[in-house]
Amino acid sequence: MTIRTRVAPSPTGDPHVGTAYIALFNRIFAKSQGGQFILRIEDTDQVRGTAASEQQILDSLRWLGLDWDEGPDVGGDYGPYRQSERGDVYAEHAQILLDKGHAFHCFCSSERLDALRAEQMANKQTPGYDGHCQHLSEQEVKGKLAAGESHVLRMKVPEQGTCVIDDMLRGTIEIDWSQIDMQILVKADGMPTYHLANVVDDHLMGITHVIRGEEWINSAPKHKLLYQYFGWDMPVLCHMPLLRNPDKSKLSKRKNPTSITYYRDAGYLPEALVNYLGRMGWSMPDEREKFSLDDMLEAFDITRVSLGGPVFDQEKLSWLNASWIRENLTVDDFAQRLNHWLLNKEHMMQYLPLAKERVETLGDFVPMVSFLYAGMLNLSADDFAHKKLSEAEVKQVLQFTLWRLEQQREWNKNNLFDAIKKLANAMGYKLSDFNHPIFVAIAGTPNSWSVMESMKILGPDMTRARLRYAISVLGGVSKKEGKRLEKAFKTLG
User: From the candidates 253, 316, 413, 421, which is the catalytic residue?
Assistant: First the structure.
């Protein structure tokens, strides 16, 4: 049997280091067994998914050296490799489940489902669908379909008993069926959910081992049930430990930069980042901390994965990156890496026209553009002092700007200016006052060229990371304060 693994990211945002972590272990496991590694794009979210995000995923994984044998850009015998191009396949298999009586049409409104959830929560019950539409007669279902009533497709789930899951790392896992919801398989817009598409694609693409994060353990019974319904053998499951923040919470962009492109643009070496991700829950037989992708491939044994929550510590990553620079790069290599990183003409031409109009001597150039070549800037709360805005207002401006820019799908100067101007107007601020803390967060000073130009050059991940850092410099936002701000933000439209 040829080992086949996959990674299946969703193109809905900046490429996440968690995606690279899972891709690394899938690729290493397959290649260590002489197998194949597949990349599949799970783009069923037609609202949030973008072609630009997909390209960033491909570019980021390739930058790390995590190439694939089959995928949307290289083809293969099991394509298409984008879920948005496999609609007929999912429709066919959804109908199979209906015909066999393993799925049913659900016509429940969102109001009924919200009320049901609230009642279950009040009664301290596990929230879940109550099977209301499962008991509709065939005639009732036909009538509702003929009338064009909005509906979804749900899977039937046993009400009693225990589902037994075998896991490569965790052994036998038992989960009561009473804890498993009647999962939606096809949404009202006709698109499949992750669960149906994932199972169908893994089977049809010959995936033999599914290596994924432990957050999917509770979904494993749904997937096992679908394999049984279709009469297919289930791939071997392996649930990797989640990456954690230093405080042991789940790795999140609010506490750590999580975008692969952030680390690329901040000047980390791909070898160092892959090395660090490889150390997340796994160790070399000789316990050395510094190793290459080839070293890991040669020594890989998945049983050496530890189930303790690996901590993603940026200081440790920086130390490892420094080791790679000092021990593995000659001076000529270092010069080439710098040039390839950001000191290249293509990148510099984005800001040279701006700098040329502001410098008086060539000596002014480096201090003026240095903020474009940094990760986090050296800022203090005093840097944000403003004659007209209180510290609380400055923090609110930064937080609202961050949220608005997280919604921004097309990252260019005009769109950024339009988004920020509308936000300033909605909050009742003059644009010059509103932009002051944004200038400081992005460039370290209010005396720079257009902050929109700077954000365009830095890109979305670095821009958002600097805004988050600026908020933390001002004391951060507590949960209570965050809820209040979210409520206020939503009123702005």
Answer: 253
